[in-house]
């Protein structure tokens, strides 16, 4: 099956009302932040878990080769067949057509490019946007410090790379 979207469980999901997603990207670093929620372990009357604020999720991607950020938002996403089952969350796209497209394009200059040149396709479904990237892996941590301090640390790293 092409573009099979599978939810990943990191114990954190984007906040539904105000996801607050921010991407900082350089040639060597891609970091995504968002307002994170975690399950309380208690079920709501609707059957899903009650969630509580967890802090800022900081996601760093290893060898990120390509990103896209913006459209579709949640209302548009639910009407697009590819994204129909994506709620606010973190996903991996298995058998990704986007990866196949990038590998095929790379073979024009580098014919020996292997199918695993790009390892994984990640998708983050937010309220007002969708973030997707092709990367080898990701790491997530949740921090509770004020966002201006989190962002200052990220931008400092990005600026240090330029030197």
Give structural notes.
The protein has 163 residues and is α+β, with helices and mostly antiparallel strands. The protein has helices at 74-77, 97-106, 147-161; strands at residues 4-7, 13-14, 22-25, 30-43, 49-62, 66-70, 89-94, 120-125, 130-135, 137-143. The strands form two sheets. A five-stranded antiparallel β-sheet has the order 1-7-8-9-6, with no helix packed on it. Strands 2, 3, 4, 5 and 10 form a five-stranded antiparallel β-sheet that branches.
Describe the secondary-structure layout.
Layout: E1 4-7, E2 13-14, E3 22-25, E4 30-43, E5 49-62, E6 66-70, H1 74-77, E7 89-94, H2 97-106, E8 120-125, E9 130-135, E10 137-143, H3 147-161
Antiparallel strand pairs: 1-7, 2-4, 3-4, 4-5, 5-10, 6-9, 7-8, 8-9
Could you give a quick summary of the protein structure above?
18% of the residues lie in helices and 42% in strands.
Class inferred from helices and paired strands: alpha+beta
Rg to the nearest angstrom?
17 Å
In helices, the fraction of residues equals 10-25%
Number of helices: 3
Mean pLDDT: 93
Order of helices and strands: EEEEEEHEHEEEH
Task: Walk across the major sheet and give the strand order.
Answer: 1-7-8-9-6
Keywords summarizing the entry:
163 residues; alpha+beta; 5-stranded antiparallel sheet; 10 strands; 42% strand
């Amino acid at each position: 099956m092409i573009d099979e979207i599978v939810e990943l469980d990191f114990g954190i999901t984007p906040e539904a009302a105000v996801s607050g997603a921010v991407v900082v990207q350089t040639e060597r670093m891609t970091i995504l932040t968002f307002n994170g929620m975690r399950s309380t372990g208690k079920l709501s009357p609707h059957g899903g878990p009650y969630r509580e604020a967890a802090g800022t999720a900081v996601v760093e991607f290893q060898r990120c080769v390509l990103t896209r950020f913006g459209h579709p938002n949640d209302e548009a996403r639910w009407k697009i067949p590819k994204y129909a089952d994506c709620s606010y969350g973190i996903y991996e796209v298995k058998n990704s057509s986007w990866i196949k497209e990038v590998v095929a394009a790379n073979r024009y200059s580098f014919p020996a490019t292997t199918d695993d040149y790009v390892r994984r396709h990640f998708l983050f479904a937010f309220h007002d946007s969708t973030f997707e990237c092709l990367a080898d892996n990701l790491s997530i941590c949740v921090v509770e410090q004020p966002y201006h301090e989190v962002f200052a640390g990220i931008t400092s790293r990005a600026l240090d790379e330029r030197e």
